[in-house]
Amino acid sequence: MKIIKTIFLAGLVGCVLIVIAILSYLFVYPFDDFQWCGRKLTTDKKEYSVRDTILLTVTITPQKSNKKKIRIYESFKNLSIWAIFHRQCYDQDSNLCSFPVDSTTEFEKENGKIMEFTITPDNSFKHTFIGTITESPDKKYFIIYFPDFWTYYVDREEYNKSVDFGFYGFWKPIKPGPFDSLEDYTNFCEIHIKEEITDTNIG
């Protein structure tokens, strides 16, 4: 009987310790998210030429509260931005499908420190990435390059037969809650890249 009682008490103590550990995890290290926020991608203009500079700005603004804390890696490793084409789906007549552009990223580096921001409807988080638009030597690709972040290789032929082209983003919480749906996407930000016109009459 004593042994059973000892085992029971040991199990009870173990359960209490587990509950304390879980509560500590929940309250001492709270979850973070980007829910109930406006998550926007914008550019400084809508039409670009080869050799232009492009400014891509991310903005986060709370919608349902006056104040919200967000956490972001200094390296922006918890932000993904894709360059995508929209074209008619292969197996459907009316819907458009997204086709991602080939890209490389510098995200193999360390996360860096975590930056914490308190945002309000009048004081959004805003950061601008500065890039350039060039083209490959064989002119097959437009190359959109953001130093220390992404490089996108936009196939010229695919670009010309697409309905539209632009950027689409996703913010991943550093410590998402157990029931977080992880659907913190941005808007689609459309841009156009103008073809250079060569004047054959010059000279």
What order do the strands of the largest sheet run in, or round the barrel if closed? 1-3-9-10-11-7
Helix/strand-derived category reads alpha+beta
Task: For the record, give the distance between the C-alpha atoms at the N and C termini, rounded to a whole number.
Answer: 107 Å
Number of beta strands = 14
What's the main sheet like?
A: 6 strands, antiparallel
List the uncertain runs.
Answer: 19-28
CATH architecture: Sandwich
What is the overall shape?
Answer: globular
Compute the CA-based radius of gyration.
24 Å
What's the CATH class label? Mainly Beta
- Our count of helices gives 2
Q: How many individual domains?
A: 1
Spell out the helices and strands N to C: HEEEEEEEEEEEHEEE
Mean of all residue-level pLDDT scores? 82
Helix content: 10-25%
CATH topology: Immunoglobulin-like
Q: What percent strand?
A: 35-45%
SSE arrangement:
Elements: H1 2-28, E1 37-43, E2 47-48, E3 53-62, E4 68-73, E5 79-88, E6 96-100, E7 102-105, E8 114-119, E9 125-135, E10 141-145, E11 150-155, H2 156-160, E12 164-171, E13 185-190, E14 192-193
Parallel strand pairs: 2-14
Antiparallel strand pairs: 1-3, 3-9, 4-8, 5-6, 5-12, 7-11, 9-10, 10-11, 12-13
